Amino acid sequence: MNKGRMVGGIICLVVAGLLGVLYFTLPEENMMFMLGEENLPWVPAVVLAIVGIVLVATAFRVSETEQETPVIVIDESKSALNKRLEAIGWGCFLVMLGGFMLVPHELVNKGYWSIGVGLIMLGLNAARYFNKIRMSGFTTFLGIVSLISGVAQILGYQEIGGALFLIILGAYLILKPWFDKRQLFGKAEQA
Q1: Which of 16, 18, 38, 100, by CA, is between 20 and 30 Å from 49?
Q2: Residue 121 binned pLDDT confidence (cut-offs 50, 70, 90)
């Protein structure tokens, strides 16, 4: 049983009942629910009653994911290797960030720093891939965005950063079923 649906359904039914009692006991001008220019104070009670009935009726339905919970196997060696790779990636990122703060912007273009951050993130995920560890979709996405926006900055297209972000996000969403089928992204510890 889904307790959240059951509680939500009961709350909706109680509020619908309360609104129904108020509708029949109070004068019509004291209860207002305007649809267009017409006062329909009974509509919220009916909508909440329908939602409550649907929630209570579906609270007892068992979904497929609740029926078969897969056993998650954690590979300790992969987990330890992933932690080492993440520590190396964070170390490289912090060195890059310190360099960005230390070196004058006139000496090194901002685009090179973005490219460096993108290469660090993509390099971390490449190391995971070659060691047969699932990659992080988040850092892969950010690495691609950082790399492409750095190249755009160097070429003088600072204004298209937001558009590139949306294009890459859309491409990721389109390719997500392909990534899920090959199980490239996910928790690194899982075998």
Answers
A1: 38
A2: very high
